[in-house]
Specification:
The protein is about 0% helix and about 40% strand. By secondary structure, the chain is mainly β. It has one domain. The chain is globular.
């Protein structure tokens, strides 16, 4: 949803209602999927680039982040690009493409 000058992550009840903004970063955030427990959301954003990530040392490649559906600070999940990331609900693994 683009409401505040850039793209941020919002959640709302599937039955309708008010949307809750989860991210407030100046970099555009692109939603991926809910985590298996439905308590957090995966999204990509070009917020930082780990010094250890020599494969893709450019900010144009978005890192994978997660954030609680209740809000709070986003956590870095992967420093490498993880486009269209989704959680496999049958076992603890993540599927994505570069």
């Amino acid at each position: 949803m683009r409401n505040s000058g850039n793209f941020d992550i919002y959640v709302m009840p599937s039955s309708g209602g008010e949307a809750k903004r989860l991210t407030f970063h100046s970099s555009p955030d692109v939603p991926g999927s809910f985590m298996g427990d439905d308590k957090s959301v995966l999204f990509t954003s070009a917020r930082q680039d780990s010094a250890a990530n020599v494969q893709f040392p450019m900010s144009v490649f978005r890192e994978l982040h997660g954030i609680s559906v209740k809000g709070g600070e986003a956590a870095l999940v992967l420093t490498q690009p993880a486009i269209s990331a989704a959680v496999d609900l049958t076992c603890p693994r993540l599927v994505y493409h570069l």
